[in-house]
Structures are given as structure tokens and as C-alpha cells.
Design brief:
The complex is a heterohexamer, with three copies of chain A (322 residues) and three copies of chain B (99 residues). In chain A, 82% of the residues lie in helices and 0% in strands. Chain A contains 15 helices and no strands. Chain A is globular and about 55 Å long. Chain A starts with a helix and ends with a helix. The mean pLDDT of chain A is 94. By secondary structure, chain B is an alpha+beta fold. In chain B, strand 2 and strand 3 form a beta hairpin. Chain B has a five-stranded antiparallel sheet with strand order 3-2-4-1-5. Classes of the chains: A mainly alpha (322), B alpha+beta (99). Chains in contact: A-B, A-C, A-F, B-D, B-E, C-D, C-F, D-E, E-F. The interface between A and C is medium-sized, with 33 and 30 residues. One adenosine monophosphate sits at the interface of chains D and B.
Chain lengths: 322, 99, 322, 99, 99, 322
């Protein structure tokens, strides 16, 4: 990995703003972003990538290649939480192992978006179907996690309301928004996109910059909890993403993805959920400790991926593709 | 103006499980309830921050004014919810303005 | 009405996002838009059409034609609530009849804006004075409604604080914003508009898209209440808008409006208020049931106008103008 | 530290009529009051949702600590407001930290 | 279901000095507390508006359920804070659902 | 001062929106902007001027001239609160004199931004280092104020937690945001700025327009408190800004600033803080009455500067530079 790839990644307004947010949290500044603004930015980013991805899907159409990409995505969404669970079981009880494994089996949309913006800053684009791949990878880990729980936990009653679990997994806000806007983007095509492009295209990187400031504040406030997670989990929070990314890149190589797609796929494999999956775990696995699974994905893996993961996985991919 | 002796039942619970509490209130036939969303706090399960990434981790604070009998029944049905998922529940005496 | 006019209306990002919102509400997704963001979008849209309308007024100046348009608008704002009241009295008590009639006598700015964006998507513009017409039609229905109440209700004390009613009618937030920004747009003209156009012009359709997602969520949550309103009111909530629109188009034909203006005028006549008028009714007619008047304008008439009313009234106007 | 026996008067009312309640509080000479805006709930007049299109439909929750006499007078003046426009009002005993 | 006699300590204080109150609660060993941020109100120091330019002027409302002894100790330590910076503090009786 | 300079300043969307906000507050309209939106606008404006200023600093580099500007800024930040304090002591007790003096020793970023937008509306730009100057002037007045307090107040214990004071002064949200974004803007240079320019550049004036509506509402609600401040303070709230501006312009003339810089410098000297300093005073000088220091800077000096100060100081500068 060239040092200037790291610099190229870090010397971007969004990534630097992330560090500014962490810094402000660490010095206990009164800088605070109200939660409704976090919501504004995250809704905006999801809608924007959905509509844009849909518009590009309308241009490219569906091909064998795309189906291959989506299949690989589904595969990793099922496999990752399983092997993550068994690694975690070495040191953790079943409940916490399930909750953490499910988080890492799912994805972080903001990490994906930051990677996409890194691509665009080095002059590369991304394809609409990668957004579809991301959407596919959001929820399976929840189901896998709860299946593992039923197998390994000795709960009096399983306590899992499967109906609700499925509804919350597949109709959770990010899945609905992504699927919905992908569809809308596809249906309204060029003309639709042009009419809303000033908001959802032009402002994209600026909004990401604003949002990463917020994410920095949020992650920064949780840095103090890192000592609670212990060395094993800390190592896990960094090693597993790298492992997942490598696996993703190899699969992508075998399946003959193009390099941009391979890179984004590795990001999806490497990133961990800190919204949808933790919310589902809170409901179905109350025995697990949120300050483990939330801190790990939010305060360890997320910053690692944003700062180091992105250029690292990109150079790994470069090695195999050039 | 008539004042009736009633109980105030107060509950703090995370947004995820708010629904369970409301189901209990609804089915016990109270005349109404009030909800304050997105309160924060600290308890056995740690601190709830003002900027949880997922709203389902924030707390809601609910209170209902009802007669003593209903209050006892509600409390006893809320007990297992709180034992399992955390939260707080407490009762007090109020005089309710009948209307 | 050509089927592709309906499609042209529906296959627009804003309208599709409205349906996505309804869908998310129906499947009880956790998708939620904080109320301060609703406020952001609605303030933005009002300010944007006000400033833009004012800027166009500065270009066009005041003419006999414009005065004719504004007169017609005032006329309909007075007449609609009166005949709506007598229709409603057939089945409802005075209180509910007043509250519903007043809602339908007023307008829905979002419906107007969606219609304007439909016009622009088929290559037509709208004139600044139509925003003035909309502003004129916002409040008279409140006064008319309360006058009808004084005449027909046998309340011990009328209970109406007229001073407050007038203040709240003519200084309510949308009236103040629209009048204010129309004035500001006129006063600052070309130069003023150019300096703020990137925000209030360029992003317009994108913001409408965002806001209609929110409106879909709000309307969707109230769809469940529709069964409470009963068949008579349900029919009313669809038939009256169509009737109002037809009347509006005929008046516009007689008064020799151009076709775009006639179409937008019909939309103003057909749309019903779900913000300003319900708020006024809550204060002055507490006997009326909000889950009737609010549900009807928000969950019946609003979606009907957005999805079907817009292309329908447009093709009606086309018939008379071509 | 001195604690005085006082009454807590609590009121839930929609934002539209909050002003009426505040007028009553102001004119009865209480030393202060606290307002929590935009609370939601359910009562005789149906459910108040989190996203009412008009903010005037949301509830506010107000409480004031005052002596018993004032509390009674406030309650009796709030009674007709609540009878007409809906809402809830109730009293309880508190010990107030004098300062 | 077991109910324990406890005290509810309620405090209203501006956001600037919330930290002082929380320090007192933390150090007195209560099992938890709940915070409602950005409440408004009126008191000896004037009216707190909904749109204060600086958030540090808004109030927070905090309550904790604890035993009587802790309640007394907390109140006596909060007294000087309120005397100096304003706010309100009061106690009442509740029955706490043990879990 | 030419009358058309005043008009040129007032006939701008932002300034007119400010008056619309005041008007809405005075007629007790229900127009309300939720506080999280105020936060959105103010964060946006700070980030935008920081990033833009940093980008321009990257272009211009650091020169003797810039160091001169920053020195002058620091000087005034120390001197103004001192002489303001002694003027105020004529009629006020030490606590209130300290709190007010500290407010006027600091700055109002929105006033600066409105002045910068006035400059751009008459075809002039502003330099990045002026944002740095503003940042430098934000906090010293807090320290000076508390030093004056220790000297003049006879408090049993000084009650000042100096450690906290320094932290809150130099890590308060606006200082952190401005310093941080200046740095980020400088580090990411042309390429960084271009990628976020649609949000942080293009929308700037529109966002300012939106925000000044909000500021008008806030200031308008406090106009009623003006009678409480009394004639002496009212005069102070207008005379001191003018005095500070004149002093600033003379210093700028002596130090050979260019005219735009001199004008902006005078605005910095003339403006008073209504966020950071009042918050600090609330904590460290609870004896002072917020309805004096807050009302004065927010409801007297801020509107005065926005409406009259800007063209006035500009024409004063023109006199000396032409
Ligand atoms: N003793 C207490 N007094 C007031 N609120 C409490 C108390 N204990 C818990 N809570 C509230 O209940 C929430 C959940 O508590 P827990 O499940 O114990 O973490 C906390 O975040 C607090 O908001
Ligand atoms: N029994 C109750 N307990 C708590 N809050 C109530 C109760 N009844 C009514 N409320 C509150 O008062 C509001 C208005 O009540 P209502 O006018 O009866 O619909 C409701 O939305 C609730 O927030
Ligand atoms: N008697 C009271 N009842 C309820 N809340 C009060 C009372 N007095 C003061 N408060 C609250 O405490 C805050 C600060 O009070 P003060 O310092 O007296 O201005 C007020 O803004 C109110 O929210
Ligand atoms: Na993953
Ligand atoms: Na109408
Ligand atoms: Na100054």
C-alpha cells in the first residue's frame, strides 16, 4: 500500500471532518449535532445512493454479471456471520457472540458511501448494482444470528418472535429506502434523475462531509468505552474486517468482477452494522451487552475502515487486478 | 370540580420495548396515557446517550393515571418486561380532576 | 384522460416517493422522519415558491389579467366552503360540517407545488401570481366556516374569539411566509433571485421528493382511520375535489385564463387544507372530530389529488383549451 | 436545607390550548412552572401521533409546584378548559426545597 | 411483584449546570436517573424560551428514584447549587417496582 | 453614507428575511423554526466559511500582511472588553458590566457572514484570513472578562474554575469548527473545495437567507425585553458598536489593510456575541442578568449592525480609502 494512497484517502474533506468530530468529542467540546440532523444526513445519503444507483441500473440493464455480483453478496451475507460466530465463541458467551457476529455479517452504508466517494476522488465511478448488493447484505445476518441463537442458546422459551424478526429485518428503514429508491431511480430514469440531481447528486459529497463530522462526534464519545471491550474483541474488531475484505477480494477475483466492484464488495464484507443489526439484537437478544457490540462496530471497526481500510483494501485489489 | 384518588404509574423503557408497555396499557383499559419520547438516562444497563446511532436504544417515559386496581395489574404485567429488557416502573398517589 | 398522462404524473420521483412513504407506513416499517425535518421541507417549499413567484411578479408586473385571476381566487375561497357546508349538513352535525367545509374551502400548498412540478416536467412553467392566488385562498374559509357556525350552531356562548381568529387566520405561518417572500422576491428582483437560486430554485424538485416521502408516511399512518369516516364522507372526499376542480376550470375558461393558470387554479379549488384550517378548527370548534376532518383531507383527498387529480384536472383543462 | 409541603399540579393539554393554561398559572401567582413540549399520548379524544401535520395537535405537559390553596384554585380554573378542549390534570404531594 | 417505598427526587436546572447535578447523583450512588432535555419554563430568573440562541440556557429535567436517606443527602447537596444558579428541586413518595 | 448603500444592503434577501422574522414575531404569528434547524443553519454557515476561508488561505499562503491582520484582531479582542467594562461600570454593578463587556469584546459570526455577503453583492470578495481573524477574536474576551471580575468583584470564593473556563473558551463549538474547517480547507485545497463547493459554496447565500429568518424570529421575540434594559444600556448597545467600528477602521488604516479587510475588521469589532460568551457568563458569572446581556447583543446590537451598521461602516471605510 503506497503511503500516498492513505494520504489521498485521508486528505479528503469527509475523512478529515470525521477526525475533527472525534477530536471535538475527546476534548469534550460542546459541539453537538441534534439527532434530527443525523437523521437528515443519513436519510439523504441513503436516498441519494438509491436514486442514483437506480438511475444507473436503468442505463445498464440487468446482466449475467450483475446477477453474479448479487449472488456473491448474498453468499457473503450468510457466511460471514457464521464463521464470525465461531471465532467469537472462543471467548464469549453465545448471546454476545451472536450479537457481534450479526453486526459484522451486515454492512455499514456510510462506510460504503465513503468508499464510493474515495473512488470518485481518484476518478473512478461505481455501478448501480453495487447499491443493490449492499441492500441484499443488510439483513440476512440478523436471521442467521437468531438461527445460531436457537441452536446454541439454552433459553427456556426461545423468546424470538420470528414474524416480527422477519418484518423488522426486511422492512427496516434502510432496506425500505434503498429498495424503494433503487426502484424509483430505475423507473424514472434519465429524466427523473436530472430533475433531482442538483439535490441528490451535486450536494452528495458535501452532505457526506457534514455527516462524517457527526459520525466522528458519535464515535468519539464511545472511544472511552473501548477499554471495556478488552484486547480479544479489540483485535477482532480490526482483524475480522481485514479478513472479510481479503476473502471478498478473492471471491471477486474468482468471479471476475471489475476492480471497482471488487473494492466496494470488499468494503461491504469488511464493514459492520451499528444501526439496523444492533436494534434487532436489542429486541431479540437482550442478554447481549450493547456496549460490546455497539462500541466494537462504531468506535473500532468504523473508524478503522474509514481511515485505513479504504486505502488498504483498494491496494489489495490493485495487486490482484494489475 | 371533583377530585378522585387515583394512581400514577410511571415507566421508563427503551423505545424498542415501548410497544410491549403500550400493549399492556391498552389491554388493561386505562382511560389514557402520555408518552415523552427520547429521554436519556442511566441505569443498570449503562448510560443512554443523547446521540445513540439507533433510536431504538433511546428511552421513552410513559405515565398513566388510573385506579389502584388497574395500577396494580399493570405493574404486575410490566414486571417481567422490565426484568427481561431493563427499564424502571413506579407508582404514586395523585388526585385526578374528573371531567 | 390519456393513460400516459397518469403515468407521466406518477413516474415522477416526488409522486413515487409519496407511495413509498405510504407503503412503509402500511408495513409498519421503522422509517420515520423527525418532525423538525418535515418543518424544514415545508418551510423550504413555501419560501422557495414565494421568492420565485415574487421574482416572476417583478418581471411581469401587475396587469388586469392578474387582477382577474386574484378575484376569481377570492371568489372560490368564499363560495366553496359555503356549498360544501350544505352538502355536508345532509349527514353531519353543524360542528363537523363546518370543520370539513372550511378545510376544503382552503388549499394545500404541497398539492399546488406538486402540480407545478408536474407542469414543469411536461415543459410548462407557472406564473408568480398563481402563488399570490394560492395565498389569497388560504384563510377566508376559516372565517366563512366560523360565520356559518354562528348562524347554525346553538352554542350557549359562541365561544369564538374573533380577534384571535382573524389574527391566526391572516398571520398564520404559511400566510406570513408566502406574503413575505412574495414581497421579498418582488423587491429584490433578478439580482436577489440569482444569488439564492442554487438553494431555492435548483434544489426545488429534490426537496419536494424528500418531503413527499414524509407526506406519504404521515398519510399512510392515517389510512387506518379511513374506515372511521364512513362511506358518505369517503365519497365526499373524492367527489368534492373533482366538482371544485370542474367549477374552477369553467370559471377560468369564462375569465379567459391561459391553460396553465386554469389548471393550477383547479388544483387550488380541489385541494383541502390539513394544517392551517384544522389548527384553527381545533381552537374554535373543539366539538368537531379531528379524526374526521384531518383524515379526510390528509388521507383521502391529498393522495387522490397527487396521484389522480393532477392528470385528471390537466386533461379536463386540455379539453377546453385545445 | 428546608423542605416545604407543597402541591404539584400536572397538566397535559394540546399545544393550541397551552396558552390558556399558562394564563391561568400566571394569573394565580405561582412562583414558576416547567413545560415539556411535544409529548404524545392517548385519551378520550383519540391518539396523538408523533407526526401530526400541525403542531397544534401535539400535547404539552406542564407542571408547577405551589401551595395547596393555589393548587386548588388553579385546578378549579383549569377544569372548564379540560372539559371543553380535552386534556388531563392531576395533583400530588411534594416536598419543595426552599431556596 | 414486589413494591418498595422509595423517594422520587426531581430537579429542574439549566443545561449549563446539569453536569453539577449529575455529579451529585453519581457520587451519591443512586441506581439510575432519567433526563429530559430542553424543557422550558418560568421561574425567579425569568422565562426560558423555546428558541434560546444558546442551548446552555435551556433547562433539563432530571428525576431519580432512590431510598429516603440518599434522597435527603442529594437534596442537601443540590441546595447550594440551586441557590447559586437557580432551578427547582422537590421530593415525593413512590412505590418502586423491584426487579 | 449614500442612501442607496443602505438600500443596497437592505434590499437583499437575507436582510429582508430578517425583518420578516421580526415582523412575524411581533404579530405573534405561529411561525416557528425548530431549534434543530437553527443548529443546522448555524453549523452550515460556520463550516462553509471555515472551509472556504481555508481554501483561500491555501491559495494565498501566509504573509506579513496576514500576520498584521491577525495581530490587530488579537489586540482589539483584548482592548475592547476592557474599555467597555469601564464605560459600563459608570452605571452597572461589576457582574453585569463584566458579562456585557465580554459579549461586546467577542464577535458575532452571523454579522460577519452577512457583511461578507453584502460585500459579494456589491462585487467584492473577502479573504480567508479574515475568517482566521474572526476565530481569534471569539474567546479572549471571556478570559479578559473573568480577569476583570477577579480584580473588581468581592466574591467570597472567586468561584471561577479556570481550567474549565479555558477549555470552554478555546474548545467551544464555534472555535473548534472554525479552526478545524480552516485547517481542513487549507489541507484539501482546490480539489477538496471543488468537491464540496455545490453544498458549501453554491447554497451559501440561500442558507444565510433561511437562517436570518430564524434570527429575526429569535430577535423579535426579545424585542419586548428592551424596555427592561433601560436608556443607558440601549444607548450603549448602539454607540459602542459604532465606536468599536471607527476604532477598528482607524487601526486598519494605520496598519494599511485593504478596504474590504478593513470593513470586515470593523464589523468584527462592532459585533457582539450572543452565543458563546453568554453561555460562558451563565456558568461563571451567574450573578449577572441574562436578560440584560443577551437582550442587548441579540435584540439591539445585532439588528442594528445588520440593517444600519453594515452600510455605515462600509461608507466610513470608503471615506478613508478613496
Ligand atoms: N433509579 C432510577 N431512577 C430514575 N430512572 C431510572 C432509574 N433506574 C433506571 N432508570 C431509567 O431507566 C432506564 C433503563 O434502566 P436500566 O434498564 O436499569 O439501564 C435508564 O436509562 C433510566 O432512564
Ligand atoms: N389517564 C391518563 N393518563 C395519562 N395521560 C392522559 C390520560 N388521559 C389523557 N391523557 C393525556 O391527555 C391527552 C389528551 O387527552 P384527551 O383529551 O382525553 O384525549 C392525551 O393525549 C394524553 O396525553
Ligand atoms: N414553582 C415551580 N414549579 C415548576 N417548575 C419551576 C418552578 N420554579 C422554577 N421552575 C423551573 O426551574 C427553572 C429555573 O427556575 P429559576 O431559577 O427560579 O428561574 C424554570 O425555568 C422552571 O422550568
Ligand atoms: Na460485513
Ligand atoms: Na380548496
Ligand atoms: Na466585538
Amino acid at each position: 500500500m503506497h503511503i500516498d494512497l492513505i494520504l489521498q484517502n485521508i486528505l479528503n474533506p469527509p475523512v478529515l471532518m470525521f477526525f475533527l468530530g472525534i477530536f471535538a468529542a475527546l476534548v469534550k467540546s460542546d459541539l453537538e449535532i441534534p439527532q434530527s440532523l443525523s437523521k437528515l444526513f443519513s436519510l439523504y445519503l441513503l436516498i441519494a445512493i438509491g436514486l442514483h444507483g437506480g438511475y444507473e441500473l436503468a442505463n445498464s440493464g440487468i446482466s449475467i454479471y450483475i446477477i453474479k455480483v448479487l449472488t456473491m453478496a448474498s453468499l457473503m451475507a450468510v457466511v460471514v456471520p457464521i464463521y464470525a460466530f465461531f471465532i467469537l465463541k472462543i471467548r464469549l458467551d453465545t448471546y454476545n457472540a451472536v450479537a457481534i457476529a450479526a453486526s459484522y455479517g451486515s454492512i455499514s452504508a456510510v462506510t460504503f458511501i465513503t468508499a464510493a466517494s474515495f473512488l470518485s476522488s481518484i476518478g473512478l465511478g461505481y455501478s448501480g448494482y453495487m447499491v443493490a448488493a449492499m441492500t441484499l447484505m443488510e439483513s440476512p445476518a440478523i436471521i442467521i444470528g437468531l438461527l445460531l441463537l436457537s441452536l446454541f442458546a439454552r433459553r427456556a422459551d426461545s423468546g424470538i418472535r420470528w414474524g416480527e424478526v422477519f418484518r423488522e429485518s426486511f422492512f427496516n428503514s434502510s432496506v425500505i429506502l434503498l429498495v424503494g429508491t433503487l426502484l424509483i431511480g430505475t423507473l424514472t430514469g434519465e429524466k427523473g434523475w436530472k430533475s433531482i440531481e442538483p439535490l441528490f447528486g451535486g450536494l452528495f459529497k458535501g452532505m457526506l462531509t457534514f455527516f462524517l463530522l457527526d459520525m466522528g462526534l458519535i464515535a468519539g464519545k464511545r472511544l472511552g468505552d473501548i477499554k471495556k471491550v478488552g484486547a480479544f474483541l479489540l483485535g477482532f474488531g480490526i482483524a475480522l474486517p481485514v479478513l472479510n475484505a481479503i476473502l471478498g477480494i478473492f471471491l471477486a477475483r474468482i468471479a471476475n468482477f471489475n476492480m471497482s466492484d471488487a473494492f466496494l464488495f470488499s468494503i461491504l464484507c469488511a464493514s459492520a452494522s451499528y444501526i439496523a443489526v444492533p436494534a434487532a439484537m436489542r429486541m431479540s437478544v437482550p442478554e447481549a451487552n450493547p456496549s460490546l457490540y455497539l462500541t466494537l462496530s462504531l468506535a473500532v471497526t468504523f473508524p478503522f475502515n474509514i481511515a485505513i481500510g479504504i486505502p488498504l483494501y483498494y491496494s489489495l485489489a490493485s495487486l490482484l487486478w494489475n | 370540580m371533583e377530585l378522585a384518588r387515583m394512581k400514577k404509574v410511571e415507566v421508563v423503557i427503551d423505545n424498542t420495548h415501548l410497544r410491549l408497555v403500550l400493549e399492556i396499557l391498552e389491554s388493561s383499559g386505562v382511560s389514557g396515557y402520555t408518552i415523552i419520547r427520547d429521554v436519556i438516562g442511566k441505569g443498570d444497563r449503562g448510560t443512554v446517550l443523547a446521540d445513540e446511532p439507533s433510536e431504538s436504544f433511546k428511552n421513552s417515559y410513559i405515565f398513566t393515571i388510573c385506579d389502584e386496581e388497574r395500577a396494580k395489574s399493570i405493574t404486575s404485567r410490566i414486571a417481567p418486561v422490565i426484568r427481561r429488557f431493563g427499564g424502571a416502573c413506579f407508582l404514586s398517589d395523585v388526585e385526578w380532576l374528573m371531567h
